[in-house]
Amino acid sequence: MTTRPTTIAGVGLALRPPRAEDADALGQLVGDVDRSHDVVAGWVRRWERDGFGSWVVAVEDEPVGFVGVRPREDDIALTVRSTPAVAADGRARAALRLAVADAIEWLPDVPLRLRVAEDDPTTRAVAESSGLVHVPEDDHEARGTRWQVLESPYVRTFTTLPPRARRSLVDLWVRVNDAGGAVGFVAGAPREDVEAEVERREDGLASGHLRGVGLMTPAGDLVGAAFLRTPTTPLQAHIRSVESVMVDPQRRGASLGRHLMAGVHRAARDEGVEILTLDYRDGVGLGQFYAKVGYTEVGRQPGVIRVAPGDDRDSVLLWRRLAETPAPDQTGAQEEPERR
Ligand SMILES: CC(C)(COP(=O)(O)OP(=O)(O)OC[C@H]1O[C@@H](n2cnc3c(N)ncnc32)[C@H](O)[C@@H]1OP(=O)(O)O)[C@@H](O)C(=O)NCCC(=O)NCCS
Fold it and tell me: Is 227 in the pocket of ligand 1 (CB under 6 A)?
């Protein structure tokens, strides 16, 4: 049986559920120690009731911040607060990224929204680097403050590609290739070649061997895609291979890859899948990315990918058990030269 993780390990921090004794530290953070006991007691109750809720950002188990997670009628409201030191060294951003990916993978499938005071560019930058996008039509004024609303990307699976979606996928794939992405082509590959590959994928979608996973902006634009392939032998009905993981090259490093993989894991788990495998082309830092989302290297075929004459790369086989709770960022210690 798969259980949702209740602690998420990051680099130099962890997200864990709140405890009553966190109240003083969290109260000092927001400058309201009196009220914080009630607030934290409410958080603890919500975790007990729903099995999820606001996270405490902890360093060596001591609270240094929180990521508020509050389900509302039609969305989940996020907030992020941390000590200045944790905000300054990027760990507040890391905490929000982990919380958003966790929500995409496990929480009710509703928009995740975070509101930021107009005069708070620091929090807005943290939110944007965690993949959230400003949705200006949701901006509003409340209690004398102008608020901007940012929303997370969302994940949709697909088994057909209507013409507009097919065009968006081909556009994305071509841009990813041209930016040096390792998704079956080299930079400058003709659009027609990508179109032909997408057509083959459509055959796979139609026959049920493939399932597509798309990552969309709040406005519905495709910014990431991946495929889950079902092996042909019934002996492997419990596994899928993950293929063609790609995000908009203009938005790399903004956590979209992490969120896309969270959606891939959710989609696979929904089908009862227990194990995922994946091949990647060595030499572009992908090992570090996949280690951060829970994969372990289990094999390597030296030199089988010829990117150009004299530039042969290894094909690396990765594996992840979905039923287990990985400690994602702890595995990120496997170093690999970055050639992004
Ligand atoms: C691989 C890819 C999907 C990652 O997406 P992304 O949005 O840039 O990655 P994220 O911002 O979610 O990164 C998640 C973590 O992995 C790390 N990471 C991502 N790409 C990395 C790289 N090339 N080298 C080292 N670390 C990397 C990030 O630093 C981040 O760590 P942090 O959260 O601790 O800061 C994206 O770079 C891509 O589309 N590449 C081209 C296509 C491709 O080669 N796909 C692989 C097919 S096997």
Answer: no
